[in-house]
Specification:
single chain; mainly alpha; five-stranded antiparallel sheet; 18 helices; 7 strands
């Protein structure tokens, strides 16, 4: 019988291989009940390997949080810009066709491609089915990864790619655009007409699928992601947060100009102001399409990098105001203590999870306001000490 045999074929490097084997058998039964073929189940689950390294990566907490400066500078460089411009020219006919159908400008698709896999030069080196099997049989996020493993089986069952070619990241993201299997099933398209949705070997399929995804997320054709801007002296930086939208006309009335100093376009288009590196770094007005990019990846830093790289690929110059030099290295535990301190001071910093997200930065801004500092939400060593001292004094 198929399922009685799966456990005996599972190859594992795991102290308790019986537990992993039993988990894989259960998933195999579920796969069969959901219509996945015996051949695919045996081919994939019958050879599933447990990876302790995947578990280690899943549990890894980076020692230091990443600043906008080191995130942005690691991803935006002249080599990546020039390569993106070359590929924009090389694939111009394809990209124009995709843009006409989807409304997604070519430079954005190339930018996502550059940030996700450095234009297809690195997909990851993990067998996706083994990674997903390992994570599915780990209690931390078992339900999520079980569904992704089942979706990977469906992809193989459909003949889009053989399981051994399903290479990606340790967490299961795949191909040129690093789609999870669920995203693949919903949005992958056969653009080159060979009868398969191949996001590894077909640039056309990969770019067309990315455009399909962005269109469904709600991309507004003809709308830029955002703009670098210049802020006046004595600007109220407490207005700089992603949930505070004003029209371009209203921002202009507050003294905001284009980064070059020219007037903003007199538009009713709503935009939010972001200062990811604080008042000494660049400022951006971001539109609805910025938030669409964040639905691809929830990081503000990622969305800013996608937008700026797209602009550079399309011919724009570097930022008028470069990200400031990094002055602070802060650990996740220090961020967690900061969040606890802000909460103790009666300032909502969200969950004390050690993640420096927008809620924590807004809480820092509120502390800055209360203590007559520039309320840009940017943390430096002196401010970290001031918040700790204020919370300690309160508790005494």
């Amino acid at each position: 019988m198929l399922f009685s045999g799966i456990a005996s074929y599972v190859q594992v490097v795991y102290a308790d291989n019986q537990k992993f084997s039993e988990c894989i058998t259960r998933i195999g039964m579920q796969a069969k009940s959901e219509g996945i073929s015996d051949k695919t189940i045996q081919q994939v689950l019958g050879n599933a390997k447990y990876s302790q390294r995947v578990i280690e990566l899943d549990q890894r907490q980076p020692e230091f949080t990443q600043t906008f400066t080191n995130y942005f500078n690691a991803r935006i460089n002249e080599e990546r810009v020039q390569r993106g411009r070359e590929l924009l020219v090389r694939h111009r006919t394809l990209l124009n066709t995709i843009q006409q159908e989807s409304g997604i400008p070519a430079q954005y698709l190339v930018s996502f491609w550059g940030l996700e896999t450095n234009y297809g030069s690195y997909f990851g080196d993990w067998l996706v089915t083994d990674s997903l099997a390992t994570l599915a049989c780990n209690p931390r996020r078992s339900n999520f990864f079980t569904q992704e493993l089942l979706n990977a089986l469906r992809i193989a069952d459909a003949g889009d790619i053989s399981p051994e070619r399903m290479i990606g990241s340790w967490a299961g993201a795949m191909g040129h655009m690093q789609f999870m299997p669920s995203t693949f099933l919903q949005y992958a398209k056969d653009i080159d007409g060979d009868g398969r949705r191949d996001l590894w070997g077909s640039v056309a399929d990969a770019l067309g699928s990315a455009a399909n995804f962005l269109r469904d997320l709600g991309w507004t054709p003809g709308l830029n992601w955002g703009y670098e801007v210049r802020l006046p002296l004595n600007f109220d930086y407490s207005l700089a947060r992603k949930d505070h939208m004003l029209s371009m006309i209203e921002w202009a009335k507050l003294g905001v100009t284009a980064a070059t100093g020219t007037a903003l376009e007199p538009s009713t288009q709503p935009a939010a102001l972001l200062v990811p590196g604080g008042h000494l770094g660049p400022a951006f007005l971001v539109t609805k399409n910025f938030y669409i990019i964040m639905r691809w990846n929830r990081s503000e830093f990622y969305a800013l990098s996608v937008g700026h790289l797209a602009d550079r690929i399309a011919g724009a110059s570097t930022l008028q105001r470069a990200p400031p030099a990094d002055t602070l290295k802060i650990t996740r535990e220090q961020v967690r203590q900061l969040q606890l301190d802000l909460l103790a001071l009666g300032i909502d910093a969200g969950e004390a999870d050690g993640v420096m997200g927008s809620t924590t930065r807004h809480a820092i801004s509120r502390f800055q306001q209360k203590t007559q500092r520039i309320a840009d939400g940017h943390l430096d060593a002196a401010l970290l000490i001031a918040i700790r001292e204020a919370a300690s004094t309160l508790s005494q």
